[in-house]
Amino acid sequence: MAESILTKQAIAGSLKELCSVKAFDKISIGELTKKCGINRQTFYYHFTDKYALLNWIYASDLLEPHMKDLNFNNWDERLRSLMEVMYKDKLFYINTIKHAGSYIIQYMLNDTEMIITKAIDTIDQNSIVCNTERHFLSRFLSYGICGILTEWVTEGMQTDPKEMSAYMLKMLKHCENAAYDFKTGKLDI
User: Fold this and answer.
1) Torsional class of 185: left (φ above 0), alpha (ψ -120 to 50), beta (otherwise)
2) Has residue 161 been placed in a domain?
3) Model pTM?
4) Which of 38, 88, 89, 186 has a 20 to 30 A CA-CA distance from 62?
5) Is 37 in contact with 83 (CB distance < 8 Å)?
6) Annotated DNA-binding ranges (predicted)?
7) DSSP code per residue over 41-91
8) Chain segment 152-174, per-residue pLDDT in tens
C-alpha cells in the first residue's frame, strides 16, 4: 500500500479516536497531528483542512466500497453494508453528523445524487424518463435516503442497521415500482 494512503489512514484513525471523546468542531489540527505523531506540514500535505479529511473518510469508508456500481439489483446489500460500517464506528459518525452539520450532509447529498443518477441511468437505458424527471427523482431519493440516514445517526442508531436498511429498501422498492408503473403508463401523475 502506498505510503501516502497509509499516512491518510493514520490521520483518519486519529480523528476517529479524538471524535470518541470530543466534538468534531472542537478538534484542532494541532490536537490531531499530536495524536497521530506527525507535524502540521504532513497533515497539510495530505489535506487542506479537517473537513477535507472528513470528506476523505466518508468517501473511503462508506461511498467507495459500499456504493460503487450501485444498481437496483444490489441496493439491499450495499445499503445494509454501509449502515453496518457506520454502526461499528457509531461514535465517529454520530459526532461528525451532529457537529459538522450541514457540511457533511451536503457532501452526502451530492455524492448520493450522483450514485442514484447512475443507478437510474442503468435501468432507463432507452431514456424514457426525461432529464427533468430524472434529476427530480435523483434529488428526491437522495434527500430521502440522506434524511433518514441522518435521523438514524443523530438519534443514536437505536434501530439495528439490518432492520433500518430493510425499512429503507422497502420504501425504495415502492419508489422503483411507482417509477416503473409511471414509465409503462400504469400510473399517471
Assistant:
1) left
2) yes
3) 0.82
4) 38
5) no
6) 28-47
7) HHHHHH-SSHHHHHHHHHIIIIIHHHHTT--TTTHHHHHHHHHHHHHHTHH
8) 999 999 999 999 989 988 887 77
